[in-house]
Amino acid sequence: MQRSVSDTHCPPEDMQALRHLIAQLAPQCGVDLGNRASIRIFLDSDQAAWRNESIDPRICQELRAMMILLFRLEASSSEDLGVEGLRRLWRQHGEIMARYGQQAH
């Protein structure tokens, strides 16, 4: 049985809540979410690296699982949209940025 696209979508408020929780936990695990290298190092490291006095390995394990879940949800949303859907979103993004830029002047 094939699932409809609407069955696989995560409501935007759920995605935002997941991002918010990730943002709260990241500093506790020494992850700088603004730095791709920091994220990659965290995701690629083994759990033994999280075992020191200042880092709770359970929190880091949960953070890692949440980050992977978020990346997979975002990727599946992109796949569901297809190339044309992504192009449409990119055009809309450009239009919004152009309007914002005009308002800023």
Which spans have pLDDT < 50 for at least 5 consecutive residues? 1-8
Oligomer: single chain
Q: Kindly state the mean pLDDT as a whole number?
A: 78
How are helices and strands ordered from N to C?
Answer: HHHH
User: Compute the gyration radius: what is it?
Assistant: 18 Å
Query: What shape does the CA trace take?
Result: elongated
List how many beta strands DSSP finds.
0
Q: What structural class should be given to the helix and strand makeup?
A: mainly alpha
Distance between the termini: 53 Å
Profile the largest sheet: none
Helix content: over 70%
Structural domains: how many: 1
Strand content: under 5%
Helical segment count: 4
Task: Write a structural description.
The chain has about 100 residues and is mostly helical. It has one domain (about 10-105). Helix content is about 70%, strand content about 0%. The protein has 4 helices and no strands. It has helices at about 5-10, 10-25, 35-45, 55-105. Helix 2 packs across helix 4 (about 55-105). The chain is elongated and about 50 Å long. The N and C termini lie far apart (about 55 Å).
Topology of this structure?
Layout: H1 5-8, H2 12-25, H3 36-44, H4 57-104
Helix pairs in contact: 2-4
Features:
single chain; 105 residues; mainly alpha; 0% strand
Would you kindly provide a brief summary of this structure?
With 105 residues, the chain is mostly helical. The protein has helices spanning 5-8, 12-25, 36-44, 57-104.
